[in-house]
Structures
1.
Amino acid sequence: MSQVVDVLHRREGTATFAQLRALVSARTIRTALADGAIRRIAKGVYALPPVPDPLAAARAQGGIVSHLSAARLHGFSVLDLPDKPQITVPRGQHRRLSPIPCELHWADEVPSDGRCTGKLRTVLDCARTLQFEAALTVADSALRLGAVDLGQLLIAAAELTGPGSRRARRVAAAADGRAESPLESVLRSILIEAGIDGFEPQVVVRDDTFSARVDLGHPRLLIALEADGFAFHSTRAALTRDCRRQVSLTLCGWRLLRFSWEDVMFDREWVVSAIREAVAGPPRHQNVPEIRGRTREPLAG
């Protein structure tokens, strides 16, 4: 059941039955629906239960919106939607009785007049507490939007102490505002954790008649990586453009490895193996047996 919820989280909260069924069993979907973990909002369309208002939860607890809830308020991309508001309260303060469920964090410095943590503080809070790929998604988005300066992020992360400070410094060192989507950030996090170097975000490939950007490119080895989301081929015209683009990249000497959302999120070992094999050398050519046909007899004249 948790996998159904995870899929909906990573799809911004909604999915069709067919999209869920591609990853989980029908029985699992029915169980999640019966237990209230998901809800049906239309025929064949499912969603997560509504999340309480984080600002109301913060007021109820005498704190401020923080972490992923604050990232959402700031407009940052997130890998996982929080299932309940994340609130930070002053250290030593007890949880207040409230009908609004929330996830509490405690800190020494909590502004009493703020709605949510500031943009830089939000990125750092996420970097300290989230898994690497989720934290990198938030940091990349904040840099891409110009909400946070990379130099300030690096300095602030270096000054952190206490739990999660080393994790935050790792995220700050890896953050890159050129990343254009959460899935791209996750793919880059996989490369980083696997120790595969040389790939840069949004590399431009061009010649006299062609120009394109690839999600991640290795300029020296001419290897391009792309992470395709759910709606990558939304129309026939989009599919045609993509086919021509892939042919043009090949003619420019690039090898293109494309990974689906399911590959990146659920089969990372295979993703790493495929990229390692591409980095190790050109595609392997198997011995193709000689094909012999029957000789045609000359026509009788």
2.
Amino acid sequence: MAVTRHPPIRDQIAGILRSAIVSLEFAPGQLLVERNLCELTQASRPSVREALRQLEAEGLVESQNGRGTIVRVISAEEAAQVYEVRAELEGLAARLFTERATAEQSDALRSALRELATAIRGEKSSKQILDAQADFYRVLFEGSGNPFLERTVQGMQVRIAQLRATTLAVPGRAAASLDEFEQIFERISTADAEGARQAAVEHVRRAGEAMARSRPAI
């Protein structure tokens, strides 16, 4: 009997722009021209401005005097901080998954890994690979049996997804990351909780190294 309400126009526009930023369709440092955004979203200029203010509050864009609104560039220091936290959270999730996941959740993780391998080896689009990675992590964190851990990671997802998209552009990184995901799953499947944790931490460490190599490109 409840009334279904559509998200405010501002939130819908913010969602569209957020997705474009995360996927690097809007590159770091790129100027976001309001007129073009209005054409892209078929929305009014006031609604687009509200959405941009929302994204600025999230730290995804920033206003520069005399220039306008640009996609915020993640500094090397901020990226390193994200990777530090991410390594601990993902390592913990891998350990807890090994100790707590049900047979159904383990099967779901195996299926997610299979889809990721298909996307990478089949040289699918970056978006398809990123979606497959996101699905793997969704299953991993759900299977950790710790809703607070899952919510904590959700609060970082936009930043993490943006960094993943950046590192994915590094030559050879996609194939290397698949090897790392397979190592995580192998440790989980053999009930090696500490090994799974270490493999997850190592995966994030190598992603951080790839990010460092990508800095001149962005």
3.
Amino acid sequence: MTYLDSDKNKEFIGNGKVNSNGETLEVFLNNYDPSKYQSPCNTVDTLVFTYIEENGQKKLNRLLLIKRANHPSIGMWALPGGFVDFKENLKDAAIRELREETGISDIDAIQVKSYGRYDRDPRTRIITTAFVTLIKEGEQNPNAADDASDAGWFEIHTKELSDNVTRLTLTCKEKEEVIAADIKHEDYEVAGLMATNYSTIEKIGLAADHGEIILETYNMIKDAVY
């Protein structure tokens, strides 16, 4: 039995020739062992930003975080997210996990990028894909459930400590929570294309590399929103 059904497999038949082992696509797929290679696990995380309107313009206001109810990083604040089911599209997984952990639904989201440093999670090799959405302030009220013990809206503040280090501070006044991370960012060029590498120097109260994901996404969208 193959991963996809026979009709879907026809899309991958190529030029219809056999491979070096004399196998057609059908025979190759029936003989294929997906456990031959150790594969990473895939997760998704969703950044839900709120906005307010001032003088007819949208302005970023707060970010939704959940408090982790289980290991790793138990008791720390994180982006809502979780594992992708085996036959589930990434965005579907992001919206599902957001709903399961916070009760927020009826939203759409845009894929930002993937984060895959090998040591970002102690359980196993986990690659996460971040999504972002923007909703009007007060439009949705989160209720923690599933892997989240709490949920709250955090104000976002950034301060440049040096040319390439930013302090990200997230404050939830309702819960009297303040969490922060000092994040190094280095621009680099590849064949004329510019990009920025983010890495955490120090953090307080934030899980894993979520400070990096938050700061990078915030920098991506803040100018577009303002």
4.
Amino acid sequence: MGSKNKLKRFKENETFQNVFQPSREEVISGNFPLKGHWNKDFFKNNHPLVLELGCGKGEYSVGMAERDPNTNFIGIDIKGARFWRGAKTAIENGLPNVAFLRAQIELIDHLFAAGEVDEIWITFPDPQIKYKRTKHRMTNAEFLALYKKILKPDGVVNLKTDSEFMHGYTLGLLHGEGHQVLYANHDVYKNHGSPEIVTSIQTFYEKQYLEKNKAITYIRFKIK
């Protein structure tokens, strides 16, 4: 994507009512006004709240919002030029139940209050295979502790990935720390039984992985 295109998207994001781009200072200082008030002040209902972390183009957030108008969805990514597509599609399709938030995932507990979130989706994260990068792996122990802070007591996390490494690493960590694995499938298109939403929404990259015959894996779990 050219820099002109990026700038155009950044400018357009600023005009979208479904996009929020707080500064890091605003978030860290505790002055982000929607923390604890997403449903009341933005969605204006008391429906369940679901996050997609590292949402990329926002395909999953938009796809889930289309399928479930009685649930609120927020796609979160630090790259606003990417989720511009999802935000624009949501506006064009008249979807009031989806928003996008430009922020770092490690600040998530500054953006949502304790027990504010019902469910989290992590879709095709970078597996960060090199040992030095483990602190950025989105299902490491530190991230799970962050997710637990904002999830309701019975809240669930979903991981969908094309990385066998990420799937195996996460399963091992979950079992090792005593978390509750509700469902695991190492090839959702060959082994049937996954929730319908796992196979009915395919991202741009997922379609590319499938063309290369890469297995798509899925885990649904609760953090103890």
